[in-house]
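call fold(seq) -> tokens
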Amino acid sequence: MTSATGASLDVEGLELATAFGTPLYVYDLSDVRSAYAALRAALPESAGLFYSLKANPHPEIVRQLAGLGCQAEVSSSGELSAALAGGVHPSACMYTGPAKTAEEIQQAIYRGVRMFSIESLAELRRVTSAVESARVCARALLRINGGRPPGHSGLVMSGMPSQFGIDADQLVERPNDFAGTGHLRVVGFHWYVATNVSSADELLATFSFALRSSAELAERLKIDVEFLDLGGGFGHPVGTAGQRYDFSRLREPIESALAAAFPRRRAGMPRIAFESGRYLVGGAGRLLCQVRDVKWTKGQAFILVDGGINVLGGMAGLGRVPRMAIEIQKIGQDGDPAPPLADATIAGPLCTPTDVLARHVQAPSVDRDDVIRIPNVGAYGLTASLLGFLGRPCPVEVVVDRGTVVSASRLVVTRVSEKRRNVQE
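ret:
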């Protein structure tokens, strides 16, 4: 591998780890392009595709996907900054997420965002007020919390009490309240039914459910739907070896479901779009860590590495999301490998018992100072971690493409002075 300075670096990671230290994230842009091509081929040709920056807002990744044609789904001022820095035009950004503040809505409008996903009636009023004050026109999608879809293996996010979306029956009961104004036109619906789905059949059931429900809502509300964001949920292996899932047969069934839900569809309306973060970048990333100790306690092996839930899976470590089944791979194995450890716990360096990446897993036999790799962590790796916990530095993130180091950078968590706000009574 050639670095930006012309030095030769080992593609497997040992020399990268020496050059930049560990823990170290490595992202491969060629995998991003491959994933994008596979997902585009699986979706209707006319469908839009939003990249969800929450998966990985690294500017080189955003720039790559923007150049390929992705729009951006952002849910904070920071993600909006990352999207714009990565070359996404503000008109190609959709602002999502619950509990948007008036300040961030105003900032998004000022920076050129003109599409908002609306999570509640109060939020609709906040966005309406902001666009009217700015004297601009914008579009809104009503995020729907509809019925529960057919059975899923992923994390279901619809059909239950939730901070996300507007209950469909609330829309039907109070349609005029959600009609929008001249400055903020309500042009359609936003769905996100489930996440990290591995089955094409389950995804098709999700999208068909959203299409049927959208058509029924449009009929009951007496509106013409111009745009439907059907969400995503395209899964990918996380933290373990494995190829991206095959969703190649989705295109024609989705087109058929769209035609069945909107049989009088004219002039390409409604237009549909999908979102993806995990599928597009999950396979592009790997995490390199160094083994700091191997110890035995009460008959069980503990492999202690220099990257824990502060750099990977922090939300999982807190029990906020399902735990990842981490798999570690030893880099640079010489000679015949020693027998694997049949019952090992992989733990990080943090002073808390929650800093565990995996429990009771089979692991390769490793020694102190060995470098290990965790695959398929390009999505929800660093950004879903406890970066500020215990004040440890963030890992370096290296981006590679066709054997060349494109960039090497590190996030810095710092403290800045704040002025007291002038609050008007």
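Confidence is low (pLDDT under 50) at residues 1-7, 153-159, 317-322.
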